[in-house]
Amino acid sequence: MADLRTILAGIRSPNPFWLASAPPTDKEYNVRRAFQAGWGGVVWKTLGEDPPVVNVSSRYGAVSYNGTRMAGLNNIELISDRPLATNLAEIRSVKRDYPDRAVVVSLMVPCQEESWKAILPLVEDTGADGIELNFGCPHGMSERNMGSAVGQVPEYVEMVTRWCKQYTRMPVIVKLTPNITNILAPARAARRGGADAVSLINTIQSIVGVDLDAMAPMPVVGGQGTHGGYCGPAVKPIALRMLGDVARDPEMAGLPISGIGGISSWRDAAEFLAMGATGLQVCTAAMHYGFKIVEDMIDGLSNWMDEKGYAALDDLRGQALPRYVHWNQLNLKFRTIASIDQDACIKCGLCHIACEDTSHQAIAKIRSGDERRYEVIDEECVGCNLCAHVCPVDDCITMMPQPVDGVQTWAEHPNNPTRGQMADAG
Amino acid sequence: MDQTPDIAAARLSDDVLARNFADAHPPLTANQAVIEAERCYFCHDAPCIEACPTGIDIPSFIHKIASGNLRGSARTILESNILGGSCARVCPTEILCEQKCVRNTQDARPIQIGALQRHATDWQMAHGGQPFARAAATGRRIAIVGAGPAGLSCAHRLAMHGHDVDVYDARPRAGGLNEYGVAAYKLADDFAQREIDFLLGIGGIVLHPDHRLGREITVPALRDSHDAVVLALGHAGVRSPGLAGQDLAGVASAVDFIAALRASPTKDDVPVGRRVVVIGGGNTAVDAAVQARRLGADEVTMVYRRGADHMSATPVEQEWAQTNGVTIRRWAAPTHILGADGSVTGVGFAQGAPGADGRPVYDGLPFTIAADMVLLAVGQVFVADPLDGSGVSVAGGRILVDGAGRTSVPGVYAGGDCTPGPDLTVSAVRDGRDIAEQIHADLMSISFSQKA
User: Fold this and answer.
1) How far apart are CA A208 and CA B91, in angstroms?
2) Do residue B257 and residue B368 come from a single domain?
């Protein structure tokens, strides 16, 4: 049984699975249910100053793809709309009953020192384990110069982080917005401000769809719509990339990262850990299936780690990072070609038509009578993998790496007009 | 043994009868249809298309269901098969499109193509009316003999091309087998007639019921009055097993029994025995046997001369019969029909078994099955008599045609069950459509050459 105990910025939890700051962590009732289900921690839904914000009715939009519900989820909800005192009392109550779980409080107050100075002691007094600065919310709050309006300006990130470090002894996690060109700028700013950890990614600005009858963006609120924050399985690739960029940055070395963005299964979790995350936060998957899903996340991750010989999360963390390189460090001499398992093939022809219409005409269709056979033309195959992706049968099309004759990167390639001048691949 | 023939109508209450003869396979809900449609892989060079005699672009119509484009889905079906609604209900999809679905190889569960086809065509009939428009009138008039699937499909396609069409049928109602020869629960709620109304919505088609070839109409006369003649005569006769006692009261043709059920809105006026023996192994035998059970017969036994694999009823049909409480006995040949006081009392059989060469050898102990009703379903045949003197050549019990549906008489075409090939509704629809295209091409090329 692999050891899943996690310490992130000094905050301990029995497993790396925390619920992200969002509706599932808005109230004591939900959080208690989450802890009963086995979640390792929560980031309490963002607290702000009184009077509380007001949320609209109709808050979520979702992308369904080919029968899969909520491949992506978009929300236009704001921070907690309950009085500050109510939230603080509930946080205190939950933390008292679950001392072994991580209870981190997400915060968002106006970008002025007094506001932060005022709220921090109140949170600290609850016994909470740490705070997470919500610099990511891309809608509603950003128009009030909070949320991503702060997160998009590195100087503000640094400034607010510094205030927080100054006015509380609690660990400070800075949550980064992905609505920015280079994630490293705010990440480095957080570190300069003294952050104990960063978490990423927050939601992505989005319009999830257009209601073609109402002729308004979804979700439709009284005939109108607005942009919101996108999350769920669809954003995982964006999150992994930003996580990798931060985790491999020498300036960020040693700063723990709480990985967020579409984590739905133990496999996703393992990928985030391998790309450098110390802890994990989940939201959409819980909102889709309920808190029970954490059971398989814990169980599956542990079983997989046992199988692979990772005794503890530290052994796994960042294992893929050394192999996350820049494009121009890839070996241009490497070649892989598709191979079709004819016994597994169901003759759907999707590999052929994908290659024929949209790629390299490297899969031949052979007909004899009623019999269909699809064969890779090795000489034409560039190893793009498209056929393997469209094939509906698991392991029917395999990419076969070919013997490699040395290494040649773009820097050395004769087609590169700046060959010899590229001193540094970075 | 009770000597009184026990044949009676209304063995069951009207409520039970209504339930027994309602739609055997209710339609998919909109949600079910989308879920099923999304299982389709949208294959390239899809094997299901090839397995469909009418060549419907199945992946496309299914994709359109998944995307919510039901109008487009129905059109994709109907432009290949204007009787796509009834084919969705009566096609033995398990030996056609669904048998070839690549999903069989992967998870042994093909896409429910028939049910999806019904979903789209039902939508069209409920919302869209006739999706095709007629081309400009050509001034040509074509006669079609036979208002079954082949004749109707041909008529629709000809009408689309701007021709005027007269469709003659010996029966009072159009539809052919769809109207008279298929179990009521397969085409419930008067679907066959509703589909004909839908088809006739194209315009330019005039139905002439109660016109029998060789009596009210003849091929030469039609040839004189029309630019082309299509023979879509189907099977007008039934094969006789030639058994002693087959004239006894209580012995009937399964085809007539099925037709009587189709003609009855309530089914409470169709008599059925208490113990029924059905002789035969095709879909007609199954339709008769199951409907006899559903009319209230206590015991229905279907007896076939050879094994399950030889029956022309598909395994799915055989299972359907068994699920409905029909006993199937195989490898038994009827020898004679027993009777008393002019009425049937049972059927004598010779028990057989597959011989060394696989052919049956009937050397087992003879046995008798008691019956007060015997339904004969040993095959239907094309009746060529009405063609006598027309010059239309017949060979092997079917009208001789070339690959384009032309008979030996210029301007006279034939298709469907009266020509060689599989006796399937969907094949007949294809024949009708293709003949229409051929006639159109032939007539138009003549007119061009005349003008030139």
Assistant:
1) 42
2) yes
CA distance A304 to chain B (A): 27
Q: Does the CB of A346 have a partner CB in chain B at under 8 Å? A: yes
From chain A residues 58-87, the ones with a CB under 8 A of any chain B CB are 66-67
Partner-chain residue, chosen from A348, A367, A370, that has the shortest CB–CB distance to B102: A348
Q: Domain tally for chain B?
A: 3
Q: Which sequence spans correspond to the domains of chain A?
A: 6-323, 328-412
Identify whether residues B84 and B214 lie together within a single domain: no
Cβ atoms < 10 Å from Cβ of A312? 13
pLDDT at residue B451 above 60?
no
Nearest to B35 among A67, A352, A392 (CB): A67
Contact B120, B398 (CB under 8 A): no
Q: Omega into B26 within 30° of 0, i.e. cis? A: no
Which residues of chain A does B68 touch, with a Cβ-Cβ cutoff of 8 Å? none
- Mean pLDDT of all residues in A141-169: 90
Query: Which pTM does this prediction carry?
Result: 0.89
The answer to whether residue A322 neighbours chain B at the CB level (below 8 Å) is no
Answer whether B105 sits within 8 Å of A372, measured CB to CB.
no
Structure ipTM:
0.83
- Domain region containing B220: 141-235+382-451
Q: Which CATH architecture has domain A328-412?
A: 2-Layer Sandwich (3.30)
pLDDT tens per residue across span A259-299: 999 999 999 999 999 999 999 999 999 999 999 999 999 99
What distance in Å separates residue A63's CA from the closest CA in chain B?
A: 14
Which chain B residue has its CA at the smallest distance from A373's CA?
Answer: B45
Q: Are strands A68-75 and A102-107 parallel, antiparallel or unpaired?
A: unpaired
Whether the CB-CB separation of A159 and A117 falls below 8 Å is answered with no
Residues 6+ apart with CB under 8 A from B36: B28, B111, B112, B115, B116
Shared-domain flag, residues B372 and B436: no
CATH superfamily of A6-323: Aldolase class I (3.20.20.70)
* Contact call for A346 and B47, based on CB within 8 A: no
Nearest to A66 among B38, B44, B47 (CB): B38
Residues A66-114 pLDDT 10s: 888 999 999 999 999 999 999 999 999 999 999 999 999 999 999 999 9
Q: Which residues of A touch B34 (CB under 8 A)?
A: 67
Average the pLDDT over B310-324 and give the result: 96
Q: Is B407 found in the same domain as B287? A: no
CA–CA separation, B171 and B154 (whole Å): 18
